[in-house]
Amino acid sequence: MTVAKPASRPNVPHFSSGPCAKRPGWNPQNLKDAALGRSHRAKVGKAKLKLAIELTREVLEVPADYKIGIVPASDTGAVEMALWSLLGPRPVTTIAWESFGEGWVSDIVKELKLKDVVKLHAGYGEIPDLSKADKNSDIVFTWNGTTSGVRVPNADWIRDDREGLTICDATSAAFAQPLDWPKLDVVTFSWQKALGGEAAHGMLILSPRAVARLESYTPPWPLPKIFRMTKGGKLNAGIFEGETINTPSMLCVEDYLDALNWAKSVGGLKALIARADASTKVLADWKARTPWVDFLAADPAIRSNTSVCMKVVDPAITALSADAQADFAKKLVAAVEKEGAGYDFAHYRDAPAGLRIWCGATVEARDVEVLTQWIDWAFAETKASLAKAA
Ligand SMILES: Cc1ncc(COP(=O)(O)O)c(C=O)c1O
């Protein structure tokens, strides 16, 4: 069956899960006030870094007694800093259901070599039994698994009377999904995700309990300067007021400020979440009328509204080998890319074959709608050329 080529393209054809689409109306001119060529320790530079922290608190609705720091090496840097600085004194529960979560497990077990580790694991499209997480252990998990499109449904499974810390990689959840702050002791994300900022800078948010751990526990392993959050046994408070450990890009800082101001202008966190939900609904409606596509996450309660992962369920395609299915998905995406109608929405390299369409707050629902028309077209074309080759 042939499908006519759609008449129009998305206004912004960017559907990558990171770096994500810039905010609507983004323009390099918006960065003209960047403190370029100035020291980040000068009054002007420090004021911008402090403002980035203050606006993060405002938009993400972070409690006043939580500390917010700008740290090196993007989300990975922030997570590693937390793992290496905080883990060790208690048993650890790791909860992982896709590639990034598994990466943290590997670091905890193989690099930090912690022995008392309970692993709760599920495959792509599913989530482990969260109620099994021991409240006396430190719990490490990802709020939204970017490569499988599965998120935790909520944080009700985390106890208020927990003795351990919860360390949460929220990089593809922040600014698109509600984070339950009282249940979270460490939260990390990077600027490049749901606000469409630039990569390389990470955010590390600490609860008072996480700060107490930092001030009462010294890990037995050496900590590189880039990970050190304490000085003489006390929290290095400067990091959480804009005195970064090393030099940040003031251009990226300006871009993050622009993204945060845009977030405020559209109505703050609630509006950002609604925007992601609206784009995800476009995909749910498309799925409902399209027999060959389905969500990787069968359960809507754990389905992401940012990194939405979908699979091809057409019997002619599912009959193929895993490699051939991956090849089909890549060809389908390449056909859309060639038309300039949508970029970077194929499955993650370690994930099951299919589509991963970013629906975070900077994406417009109407662009997702137009993208689905192009995918319908590309599916028919790719399937036809497969049949021809057979
Ligand atoms: C859940 C998750 N954790 C960590 C990362 C790594 O982030 P970064 O490259 O910003 O360090 C990503 C990137 O996509 C991610 O999705």
- Helix vs. strand class: alpha/beta
Using the 3D structure, state the CATH architecture of the largest domain.
Answer: 3-Layer(aba) Sandwich
CATH superfamily of the largest domain: Type I PLP-dependent aspartate aminotransferase-like (Major domain)
| Broad shape | globular
Q: What's the arrangement of strands in the largest beta sheet?
A: 1-9-8-7-4-2-3
Bound molecules: pyridoxal-5'-phosphate
Assess the beta-strand content as a share of residues.
5-15%
Oligomer: single chain
Radius of gyration based on Cα positions: 22 Å
Instruction: Write the H/E string, N to C.
Output: HEHEHEEEEEEEHEEHHEEHHEH
CATH T-level fold name of the largest domain: Aspartate Aminotransferase, domain 2
Could you give a quick summary of the protein structure above?
With 390 residues, the chain is an alpha/beta fold. Helices cover 35% and strands 15% of the residues. The chain is globular and about 70 Å long.
Account of the 3D structure:
- This protein is of the alpha/beta class and 390 residues long.
- The protein has two domains: 31-264, Type I PLP-dependent aspartate aminotransferase-like (Major domain) (Aspartate Aminotransferase, domain 2); 268-389, Aspartate Aminotransferase, domain 1, CATH 3.90.1150.10.
- It has nine helices and 14 strands.
- Helix 1 runs parallel beside helix 5 and helix 6 runs parallel beside helix 9.
- The longest helix is centred in the C-terminal third of the chain and has 25 residues, at 365-389.
- It starts with 42 loop residues before the first helix and ends with a helix.
- The structure holds pyridoxal-5'-phosphate.
